[in-house]
Write a structure and sequence with these properties.
alpha+beta; 388 residues; two-stranded antiparallel sheet; 6 strands
Length: 388
Amino acid sequence: MSAFRLFQASLGWIVSAVFVAAGIFKLVDLELFGRSLETWSLLPKWLIRPLMVAVPSLEIGVALMWLLGAYRTLAVAAMVAMLVAATGFYGLHLAFGIQPVCACFGAVHKALELKQVAGTVLARNICLILALAYQYVLHCTGGPNLHQSATHEPFKARRAFTIVEMLVVIAVIIIVASLLTPMLRQSRTAGKDVASLANLRSHSANVASYTSEFRGVFPYFTNPRGIVLIPHDSGEFPAIYFDMYFVWSLGMSHLYYDGKMPHVSHYRPGSPSICTYFYSATLVSQPEFWNALTRTGPEQWRAVGIDSVVFPSQKAAFTECDGIVMTPPNAIGKGVLLGLIDGSAQLSPASTLMEPYRKGEGGWEGSRFSGGVYGMHTIDGVRGRDIR
């Protein structure tokens, strides 16, 4: 068999292998695939969850039909239909000026940090469609395949699975995937929580080091009188007073993070944000500011010393804001990840959390949050507790 005829015969195997790989990589990180589907704004919201499981299951199922020699013509037609539908819908979004995220290879796409280029996505899909169409023609006309002898005798099909058997296999794949999805999501979330707790411990320890080097005062880089330009790698960031919740990472980057911004430890694994660990506003304002009876205003915005802390093992220096932290405790779900002033970190269940100061930082110029955030807006400030 010549090299060209070998390529012709291998084409279906190559494309089917691509489909299987795409399906498996989506199942490995269904959370990422689900987030990418949410960027397809023309897609009905109710359809996202079913597609999260159905798309990778069908990709694997129809590819296996071809690989196992069962109804290959139907398998090729199904793969073409899936590609045409996805490519057409992608092109429709582009026509409306929307570029959705195409996480076709799931975890691999994220690991390699591949950039989304509309032309590349369209060109790749069109090439796959043409390859499948060519394979369809070859199959219908009895073209070469890997099961033929060197004399190119007509291929005699062995007994393949019936259509009912293949539908049963695909149904089983979908059911197993739907059962495994919650467990995979929980295990991935647990792994991210462990990494986040390690990050929070590191940041809390760095804050403790800072206070020992700077006369016992917590990090303080903004000014209550107006905007401060915080330098970073690509220029300067104009920060209002309570922007300290995230510019702490800029101010401390050269001291503790090798000058890197964003540093990998500044965000929860898998988060698109450059900083998901919020610095407590109570560390840059006096304790009296966090009590309704003694709050007067911005004149209470000033540096706070670590010697004012009463409960270092129960008072947060950082809170992970990767979820719903501004809702009542019974709506938080798993709880909130906190980095504590004593250098420890923990996942605090809703039942153990103290209510934050509900008015947040108030409505003054320089405020950022008008509602209370767990770990950031502690009643009585550094003299109070975030954990019971």
